[in-house]
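2024-03-11 09:14:02 INFO receiving multi-entity request
2024-03-11 09:14:02 INFO entity count = two
2024-03-11 09:14:03 INFO echoing inputs for audit
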Amino acid sequence: MSLSAEVALTHITRRAISLVPLLSAVILGFGVCGLIAKAVGLSPLLMLTELIKGAVEGPQIFETIARAVPLTGMALAAAIPLRAGIVNLGADGQMVLGGCAAAIIALYLPAPDIVRMLAALLIGAGIGGAYAALAAAGEIFANVPLLLSTWLLSYPAKGLCGWLVRSPLRDPITAWPSTYRIPPGVRLAHLVPGTPINQGFLLIALAAVLIVFLDRRSSVGYELRLRGLNERFARYGGVALNRQTTWLMFVSGALAGLVGAIMILGSQFRFTDGALTAPQYTWSGVLAALLAGGEPLGTVIAAVLFAALQTGGFAMERSVEIPRVLTMVLESIIILFLSMRGAIWRRGR
Amino acid sequence: MTGSFLNAAFFDQAVLGITPVLLAALAGTLSERVGLFNIALEGQMLVGAFAAVAGSHFTGSLADGVIAAVVASTLFSALLAFGSAILRGNDIVIGISLNLLAAGLTSFLLRSLFGVSGTFSDSTMAALPRLHIPILAQLPVVGRALGQQNALVYLSWALVILAAIFLRRTPWGLRIRGIGEQFDAAVTLGAKATRYRILVTLVGGALCGLAGLQLSLGSLTLFSENMTAGRGWIAVAAVMLGRARPLAVAAACILFGMSDALGLRLQGEGLPNQITDSAPYVVTLLALVIAGLRERIDAARVVI
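2024-03-11 09:21:47 INFO inference complete, emitting structure
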């Protein structure tokens, strides 16, 4: 065997071996979920087949893609700070603020439809970003850890929007507190007719490509990764940590806000209290980002897989009445196993 | 002044709000002292709250509910002990995944065991009975708050003092602090670090189980999805604010309980509950900001 072939083979085997903990965690996760299902009297085999069928069979694949759009956005929102060793647990609040702001702009801005749509997307992202940057300021000026501040800040954000749609913005004919429906001209158009896939797909795909590129090929991405590997070395190497924290939190929050705006303009068409957070995209996103250790491309792949899992979960719930929340259990068990093995963020103590 | 706004119900509500956070914060305090960052308090509480309701519903006995809560959350914390203390995985990642696991698992079981989503309540279930402490109960205004709580409330107060004494005055407390502050030195001197970390994590799990019990059977008798509503994280904040000293942590928890009750009180005055519900989180954030700023100013003084 030639030397180059041997090198290539070693490379491939090394790659394959690095996937072993991941695959074993996935298998263990399915095993545990099967046991849980069995324990409450449901069939594990039925669970598995319905889950897979429901995710990819026929038109379900479009459903999976549609679901992958917000989930990938939220996963990237979690991955950017994670790359630098920071956890943003407040994406729920940032997304809700972005979605609420987008709904308000789309309904009330006196401007042509297209301007309103663009303004809704931009301001939705901007508000989400600003809110996340607020948490960054808390850490920089008052040593409040981001882990806590991001989480705690999401409650007042959700509370404020919940109040807005109950009192000043309420559409009185709806049963559940929500705003008026946004007019058709301001909505995101469907990309493929007859499917739930809309222009939001392009926005998130563009963001994903941009983030993968910046992560791999730019000095910004290099500094981000450097910090994630060794913060003290990054500081010593001249990375302006405070400025970096502010920017990465802004971008993370802006992505979350953008996802909120996309969901309002693309599929929900009105801001309803609790509707943005109900599908738990934030948490699946955090788990997908953790699964990939914050690496953007891996995060996207994990997010798409989790989206398939969720779509399958819906089908599973419809056809065999196994509660779909079991997919959330599965996702967290996979991350739990991986983190225990130290496969995610090994940090000696 | 105490007549209308800060009435007996306010103080009663405050004590009820303090208790679960206080119990979880004690678990966090012990973990912090032994050198583990426990952010899975939220999830452990949730498991405890669910197990309390499930246990007492299926057996019809309150005592079994108590046992179920403590056993379930202790078992759940064994996952944390295994990952964090034994395998030394990253405690933040393990904590996040455990919290999400607890949320998912309890909603799943709520749907599959009780066939409901959202909230399960059973009016035949008994809440923890309120006691009547002779002298305290007769105090004006705060009589109900201090003298007529359930046994768990008084237990939580006793545990604060016990934890303070345990950490300060016993050889085990000394070893725990040693492992947390000077890991290598403590291990060199023969402290069994891993064993202590496992034990502390399991005891923390039991404490969180009691916290969950107080939430679901303390005064109401119901379980609803994510009913912990961030209390575990407020407990984490309380541990930070009190720098993992039991009495100071308890003071931080009292601040939280007061703001919780204040929110409810303002709601009674006609403010929308979506806004007043945010009170405890905003107060916790402000407290963290103020404490952080003071720390900064103190640090600057030393430099000068």
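2024-03-11 09:21:48 INFO post-check: Residues 8-228 of chain B form one domain.
2024-03-11 09:21:48 INFO post-check: Residues 8-33 of chain B form the longest helix (26 residues).
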